[in-house]
Write a structure and sequence with these properties.
six-stranded mixed beta sheet; 9 helices; Alpha-Beta Plaits
Length: about 375
């Protein structure tokens, strides 16, 4: 019998870029990387469950330099950016961020970046794993608008967990704690140019530090580690356990270009009444009027603890294939398997019983439940 393919043998090359923090991640013992936005993203340094507990009980440091920025500037930058997203940016002030969607002409989701407004006509889009810069350049080509689009020298770190405030205070002083959720400041740390935001991918209290000089990545990393030493700060990979608990979606897994905002529960980010046009407006208006046929639902899956799924698992009801589990994992805090499934709306009623085919485990019963699984009003990250 042929041996199964060893995924660790997938070759790497110079075309896969490394973040300014890569050398530090190696020094601190990163054991796994994945490829995200054509870059290496640290996966884990320790057992993912141990890293999860470090996150929710203490403070963790993440290299998320793979969150590449699309910078939009020029006289028409506001109008252009507002055209890219169905969320109305008129209320987004300079110094404020917004979670937004970038939609295609058919309403499909191209990306779900965090947008930051650095000036009246200067924006950053911290993008998930898809080529938004190329999309934006294509849109700009025949738009008649005067804009400049580029990927600036910007690479973020995330400092996440209930003790992140203490670390940030040691780095930047007590005034940093006054920054509201989804706001940011431009600052320096020992001459290192930064943008500091009150954001994160965890559902915990957290911050992101956007490095604006890639030559100083290791220096910044070590300053954060030193400030976090009294609180046992630990470098970790992004926690899928915690983001699923929080109802956070992962682009490319839980939603793709084939999905629209209403299917994945992000209809609140679509403002069909905003002034001016945006890409996908007519399609999204029609989708909302007609209603969706499929939607992303929360599920609890019976049985022994599951590792994070590496493929989409088939979902059946009464013996008929109806959809897939997109993300699933065991929550040590909730003591049950949780996840998301894309299924017909008639399967989305709370309490509906489904069957999930888990590789090497067989059929398991799943129950449709509310999501997010923890802190639905986001009181934790806002605190």
């Amino acid at each position: 019998m042929a041996q199964p393919f060893d995924i660790t043998l997938i070759t790497r090359g110079a075309r896969i870029r490394r973040s300014p923090f890569y050398e530090a991640t190696q020094r601190y013992g990163c054991k796994s990387y994945t490829v995200y936005n054509h870059m290496l993203l640290p996966g884990y340094y320790d057992d993912p469950v141990k890293e999860y507990w470090k996150l929710i009980e203490g403070v963790t440091l993440w290299d998320v330099g793979v969150e590449r920025q699309v910078e939009i500037t020029g006289p028409d930058a506001f109008a252009f950016t507002n055209m890219l997203t169905p969320r109305d940016l008129i209320q987004c002030k300079v110094g404020q961020g917004k979670y937004v969607l970038i939609t295609a002409e058919d309403g499909g989701i191209i990306n779900d970046p965090v947008l930051m407004r650095l000036g009246e006509n200067r924006f950053w889009l911290a993008v998930a794993d898809s080529d938004v810069l190329l999309w934006a350049k294509g849109v700009a080509l025949n738009s008649g608008m005067t804009v400049e689009l580029q990927e600036p020298d910007v690479s973020p770190l995330q400092i996440q967990g209930p003790k992140s405030k203490q670390v940030m205070e040691r780095l930047f002083g007590r005034e940093i704690l006054e920054m509201p959720y989804y706001h940011f400041v431009e600052t320096k740390l020992n001459g290192i140019p930064l943008v500091v935001t009150r954001t994160g991918w965890t559902g915990e209290v957290g911050y992101e530090i956007y490095l604006r000089d890639g030559s100083r990545g290791v220096e910044l990393w070590e300053k954060v580690m030193e400030a976090g030493k009294p609180y046992n700060i630990a470098p970790t990979g992004p926690s899928d356990i915690r983001r699923i608990e929080a109802g956070i979606l992962n682009y490319g897994i839980d939603m793709t270009l084939a999905d629209n905002p209403y299917q994945v529960g992000l209809g609140r980010l679509v403002d069909l009444e905003k002034k001016g046009d945006f890409i996908g407006k007519n399609a999204l208006r029609q989708i909302k009027a007609q209603g969706v046929k499929r939607k992303l639902v929360g599920v609890e899956i019976d049985g022994a603890p599951l590792d994070l799924n590496l493929t989409r698992w088939p979902v059946t009801r009464d013996g008929k294939r109806v959809g897939h589990v997109m993300s699933a994992v065991y929550s040590p805090r909730l003591k049950r398997n949780i996840g998301y499934a894309m299924a017909p709306v008639e399967c989305g009623e709370l309490g509906t019983k489904l069957s999930v085919t888990v590789p090497d485990s067989g059929e398991r019963t799943a129950t449709v439940v509310k999501k997010p699984f923890i802190d639905p009003t986001k009181n934790i990250p806002k605190s």
